[in-house]
Amino acid sequence: MARIELDMAHAYRPNPKQDSDYALLPLKMTFDDGGAYALLGPSGCGKTTLLNIMSGLVTPSQGTVLFDGRDVTQASPQQRNIAQVFQFPVIYDTMTVAENLAFPCATARCPRSRLPNAWARLPRCWK
Ligand SMILES: Nc1ncnc2c1ncn2[C@@H]1O[C@H](COP(=O)(O)OP(=O)(O)OP(=O)(O)O)[C@@H](O)[C@H]1O
Ligand SMILES: [Mg+2]
């Protein structure tokens, strides 16, 4: 995939003044290429906001997102070549991880060969 570096904060409301105005307080975080990570925290702590910022569905109100050192803060998910599996409705538990990731591409009649090369790099047990 890519090495993802976050150095940002996000407030859904304009002109945040206090900590409680932020969905994500300023944070720096690096996800190494090929790593497996889990985000844990109570409801409302900002997990989905963080994922949406990484995928490009939400633009952080301050700071930057880097993919392999390239500033993609303003780039769309398509420009980032990234896929996201949403919490809801649900993932399909009859499918493997790889099949869940490929499903939107299949329904869009996009050949698997056009999937990001992530498919090839998924562990065999996920396919
Ligand atoms: N579109 C939005 N507009 C305004 N506030 C939002 C929006 N989305 C989320 N929030 C607020 O941002 C904060 C973080 O929400 P977020 O959905 O990222 O948390 P979460 O950790 O994913 O929660 P959950 O475990 O319930 O899915 C919460 O206070 C939430 O109310
Ligand atoms: Mg969530």
Shape assignment: globular
Helix content: 10-25%
Count of distinct structural domains: 2
Kindly provide the radius of gyration, computed on alpha-carbon positions and rounded to a whole number of angstroms. 16 Å
Oligomeric assembly: single chain
The helix/strand class is: alpha+beta
Ends distance: 17 Å
Q: Biggest sheet: strands side by side, in what order? A: 2-1-3-4
SSE order: EEHEEHHH
Outline the secondary-structure elements.
Blueprint: E1 4-10, E2 24-31, H1 47-55, E3 62-67, E4 70-71, H2 77-80, H3 97-107, H4 118-121
The chain binds adenosine-5'-triphosphate (ATP) and magnesium ion.
Q: What labels would you give this structure?
A:
127 residues; alpha+beta; 2 domains; four-stranded antiparallel sheet; 4 helices; 18% strand; binds adenosine-5'-triphosphate
Write up this protein.
With 127 residues, the chain is of the alpha+beta class. It has two domains: 4-78, no CATH class; 85-127, no CATH class. It contains four helices and four strands. The chain has helices spanning 47-55, 77-80, 97-107, 118-121, and strands spanning 4-10, 24-31, 62-67, 70-71. A four-stranded antiparallel beta sheet has the order 2-1-3-4, with helices on one face. The longest helix is centred in the last third of the chain and has 11 residues, at 97-107. The radius of gyration is 16 Å and the shape is globular. The two termini are 17 Å apart. The mean pLDDT is 87. It binds adenosine-5'-triphosphate and magnesium ion (MG). Adenosine-5'-triphosphate binds next to helix 1.
